[in-house]
Write a structure and sequence with these properties.
alpha/beta; homodimer; eight-stranded mixed β-sheet; 4 helices
Chain lengths: 193, 193
Amino acid sequence: MSSTVLYMSMSLDGFIAGPNERPDNGLGDGGERLHEWTEGLEDLAQADEGDRKVLEDFLSTGAVLAGRGTFEPAGGWGGDHHDGVPIFIFSRHQPTPEYAQWPAVTFVSDIGDAVRRAKEAAGDKNVLVHGVGTAQHCLRADLLDEIQIHLIPVLLGEGRRLFEHLGAEHIELDTTQVVRGREATHLRYRVRR
Amino acid sequence: MSSTVLYMSMSLDGFIAGPNERPDNGLGDGGERLHEWTEGLEDLAQADEGDRKVLEDFLSTGAVLAGRGTFEPAGGWGGDHHDGVPIFIFSRHQPTPEYAQWPAVTFVSDIGDAVRRAKEAAGDKNVLVHGVGTAQHCLRADLLDEIQIHLIPVLLGEGRRLFEHLGAEHIELDTTQVVRGREATHLRYRVRR
């Protein structure tokens, strides 16, 4: 069965972007630090075994669900995140024309609808979930099945945190996998119900 | 050589206590969730191997450095944190009489002085550092050598975060150990200089 899996690189102090995020500064000041672990991984054969395992898993997802805040600064991934899989963008607003041009990309304004359609499109593969806002919406609506954190050994100090605005109710997780990469520690959790 | 090592149980969303911390509610509402992993570990022989390794390490420290916010809600550990090792409490204020009664406990008002005296007292053992305020003071003054996080698979949602008020300068870490316990994932870092 298809799971929604949030993939995010996060600093030990919980940030997924540095301060001063803007469309032309999508990761915030210094936020690229959190993605250095992926450098040189284009050639998976050369990758550290732990990193390769996690990246292969990432690339085996059958659909992408993200928010506009992730999609637009990334240039919409040119309409193809990986392998041409369907991309669902959760957004309350209609897309601007430049982002409405790709056949694989669908804008959906309701989070439940977005998850349902992404799961359908993914078939028996998982849905890759990206972005803070989408993650928080999914968590609050109990629509997130798994969390894959690439934990980076740095304290960013300032920026945007991944887990905020979730309310005081605890969300219990089960640790399903701990994998050390060259630099990142890859932590996988299942959201308990 | 003696290292200062911060030991803290932290939720995946970065909290070390729940909301509404008070002297009579030292871990905040629901904060005891973060310490459940230590239940039943009084008998180390029965403990999960990963948890045991980390606890033995914790108990081999030769001095304790903590703040009043940790010390007082814990009843001053009755003056003995473990094995009667010297305890240094970082505090700008003089202790109230009930907390000034134990010979192993010294109040120190300067963080640099507190670290120096705790390291001296620990000899060639490490110094166990406890508490948010003390951790943040040590990090800002570049006096923390290592960080041992017991990462708990829960999103607490609200409460007190461990890493805050550190400023925008990145603090780089090296991951030195990743150990899975029964429930917690024990992550150890060395602060890079």
